[in-house]
Amino acid sequence: MIEKVLKYLIWAGTAVIIFSPLYLKAGFFFPFIFTKTITFNVVVEIIFLAFLFLAWRSREYKIKINIVVVLFGVYLLLSFLSSFLGDNFYHSFWSNNERGEGLLLYLHLFVFLIVLTSFFKRIKDWLVLIDLSFLAGLIVSLFALAQYFEFNFVSTLGVGGRLSGTIGNAGYLAGYLIFTIFFGLLLLFYRKNVYLKFYYLAVILLEIFIAIFTETRGGMLALAIGGFIFSLYLLFFYFKDKRLKWLGGLLVLLAIILPILLFVNKESNFVKNNRILARVTSVSLNDTTTQNRLMTWNSSWQGYKEKPILGWGQENFYQVFDQNFNPAIYRHKGSVIWFDRAHNIVFSRMVTGGVLGLLTYLSFLFVPLYFLWRLFLKDETNGNNPKKYLLPVIFSLVVLSHFIQNLFIFETLVTYIPLFISLALIGSFLGGYKIKLFSVNKSKIIILCVGVVLFFPIMYFVNIRPFQANIRITKVLNHDSSVDVKFKELDSILALNTYGNYEYRQQYFNFFHNVFRKYISSTDQGIHQAMSDVANKLEEELNKQIAENPNSTTSYLLMMKFNNLAYAYDINRLNNNFEVFKKVEQLSPTRAQIYSEMGQTYLNLGLYGKKVNGDVAAINGNFDLAEIGFKKAISLNDQNLEPYRQFIYVLMAMDRNDRAVEYAEIVKTLPRYGSGTWADDIIEDIRGIVD
């Protein structure tokens, strides 16, 4: 009876994990990521402990080690080593709420892999898991379809634009659907029930439709290549009926001709007026996305050359990107300029794990396929019948398509789960290594006891406390309450000292900034004293941020922004920016923002001096240094409107209107100048100056 309950628990837990792409709770901070990550961690810990109990109770079960487990285990060990030798092991281990992809997640994935490998043994069990994954993909697709038709009940997912469903990111959704589409193809050919075949085919077509309307070009390319290769397999090896061969041949021919016709006619109204076709055919070296990818990959390469063997450590890509930041990425105020991922599976693994990490991870993906093919090629059960290769063909295409997709984006939990299920299934065909330790009852008892002792501390520190902090930060930011109460609640959240503190301090600053702007002109001394006390607490937290993340450009820049704001309560904060600037300039010498912030510091010093003592020489000296800072920001990318706009406002604040007009005239000559938000703002500035 106990064994049966444990088995049901493992089955149920695995199902909960499979359906985790559907989980979304708006009350969380980063709800699309955190909801899924916390669920995955909790359930993995529970089913692993249940499996340890089952292995102790039953001789039928034991921890099984095969080539898949070994390869990921080696990658995990290398990741720990590179992260330990890196500059911020804490961040490498825990990651943050936005990504949730630190070593902690890898440990849970490793344990998940062990449970899959050790518990599921029969092909019919694996097909049930594949069926459950396919059903989850159907439900995810239905939510995305509702998003496409702009139904009100999915308004929290966002309507209009690219489809993202309950996953929250169009690229992630496309990557997830790659797995479920190929899972559906496997079931379509494996299951004999005719009605089920219609179900699989209908859902596959729906998921292809959703994948297309994610408008993720990497995902569409991966599906196109995978689908094309699978069609060739069916056409030349699987189908025997000549009618099917003719039909397959026609479809393959169309698959070749249609893309060519689209690219040849990409300037036609038919293509331009279709959002999907226009996006697909807009790929070029001059495309903004392509340019950003190329610049990011170049930054990755420069960073890799510095640490080629073991890399920089997990979650430390931001250090490489900041150090080798290309100013051309900063095109306008809305540009994405803070990258923590290389958007390429090869460069990502190279930077975080060096050449050893890259080769080990690629081995984890592809070496099991080699052994799978070797096994099926040697199998003489069905002679040379090509149909017997259906399973290795499909799973080879699953891994290949996943790899192609991630040449342009990056992996996340919703794609890791089906990937690990796929590789665990492959591993189930390959047998395992005989390790006596896992078969001896005494060893099983010791492992179980260790698991029981560690279970509750891990559950609390890894899940419960981060959960409390995460849900409380959302409440304090979104619910109506007094400013005093909110600041006290923010202090208590930070006192929990979770891995989310890095993000929560940023939210603390944002809230302080908004409150500061509201009360700065107040004549109530009590309010000013209260704000000064809050500023002191926030300053203490930002100093902790720097101490914990000594190579994070954002930490230093946040401190500079704070000092340029809170100097109203302590003028010495402006002088502190000199030391902060020296450090941040070393970390990211080509970021315009740090020079603009330093220019703002000199501007504030000049304005403060003008207000207090009227020392003309000192005032003009600070204003001159402010100009130098903003000019430096402009020089890093002199085609970007935003630094000019900031500089014009600064010149006006310094009563240097002639210089403001001079730079406004320069703005008129910029290629990007024209109708639009930023251009209109600048035009209004010029008119104000001239009048």
Computed structural class: mainly alpha
Query: Given the C-alpha coordinates, what overall shape results?
Result: globular
What series of H and E elements makes up the topology? Answer: HHHHHHHHHHHHHHHHHHHHHHHHHHHH
Uncertain runs are none
Q: Give the oligomer, counting copies of the same chain as homo and different chains as hetero.
A: single chain
**Overall pLDDT, averaged?**
89
Helix content: over 70%
Number of strands: 0
Q: Characterize the largest beta sheet: strand count, sense, and whether it forms a barrel.
A: none
Q: How far apart are the termini?
A: 88 Å
Rg, nearest Å: 29 Å
Summed up, the helix count is 28
* Strand residues, percent: under 5%
Written overview of the protein:
The model has no long low-confidence stretch (mean pLDDT about 90). Helix 25 (about 615-635) packs antiparallel against helix 26. The protein is globular. The N and C termini lie far apart (about 90 Å). Helix content is about 75%, strand content about 0%. It has 28 helices and no strands. The chain is mainly α. It has helices spanning about 1-20, 30-55, 65-85, 90-95, 105-120, 125-150, 170-190, 195-215, 215-240, 240-265, 270, 275-280, 290-305, 315-325, 345-380, 390-405, 415-430, 440-480, 485-495, 500-520, 525-550, 555-565, 570-585, 590-610, 615-635, 640-655, 655-670, 675-690.
What layout of secondary structure does this protein have?
Blueprint: H1 2-18, H2 31-57, H3 67-84, H4 89-94, H5 103-119, H6 123-148, H7 170-190, H8 194-213, H9 217-238, H10 242-264, H11 269-272, H12 275-281, H13 288-306, H14 317-323, H15 345-378, H16 390-405, H17 413-428, H18 441-478, H19 483-495, H20 501-519, H21 525-548, H22 553-566, H23 572-587, H24 592-612, H25 616-636, H26 641-653, H27 657-668, H28 677-690
Helix pairs in contact: 1-2, 2-5, 2-18, 3-5, 3-15, 5-17, 6-7, 6-8, 7-8, 7-9, 7-16, 7-17, 9-10, 9-16, 13-14, 13-15, 15-16, 16-17, 18-19, 19-20, 20-21, 20-22, 21-22, 22-23, 22-24, 23-24, 24-25, 24-26, 25-26, 26-27, 26-28, 27-28
